[in-house]
Amino acid sequence: MSVTITAADVNKLRTMTGAGMMDCKKALTEANGDFDAAVDFLRKKGQKVAANRSDRDAKEGLVIAKSNGTRGTLTVLSCETDFVAKNDDFFKVADNFAQIALDAAPADQAALLAIPYEGITIGEKVIELVGKIGEKIELSKYESVNAGQVIAYNHPGNKIACIVGFNKAVSEQMGKDVAMQVAAMAPVAVDKNDVDASTLERELEIAREQIRQEGKPEDMVEKIAQGKINKFYKESTLLNQEFIKDSKLTVLQYLQSADKELTVTAFKRIALG
Asked: For residue 44, what is the domain's CATH number?
């Protein structure tokens, strides 16, 4: 059964990718309305569009990163409008939830929502906020990282934040530099071996199709595709990315300029909108 593609659907894909209206409509039609598949369709046709879609579902709200040194947390209190997100009282509640998440170290989002707060639970407080503010409010995301040292970075405006775990102590400046790299460049993994298998296979399939579209012979497709994957690793894995403050260095080389054993063990990044 075919899915009806609306003008709103086309506009949403245009916003996500920057591709043309007719290209977006065709992609959604081919993908039967599946947005992720439509993005892949556009990329296979050689369109320069966003490869990462995981953080595009969240709308307005605040993302807050915190660290106590060896543990870091990310929490998102989401809402419908930027007007609410910029309210001081909304920020105070979001910051309180973030601090509780850091201090209590809940195992998951459900455990965080069950923690007592002002005589009720955090989950019940969220429901109370919905009634008070008149918008859909959710404590929509919770992530944590434990490591030798964890750096928290909040980009001004609290629309992007990240936590980065290092295997050992790192200087304040170096830790902030790497966290800002994560915030700005949105890597998909720490290193090549950390890339999710499904992500890698999707990138390979897109690369193969792009090469075929260019008219390259079939016996060269796999070799060229592997070259594209190496480029993907360089652009999309943190330790292999060019360091934003010095393009002559990779992030790993920057870390090892201070300590040959220093590396990143994990990171989490959330962007709203």
From this structure: 1.10.8.10
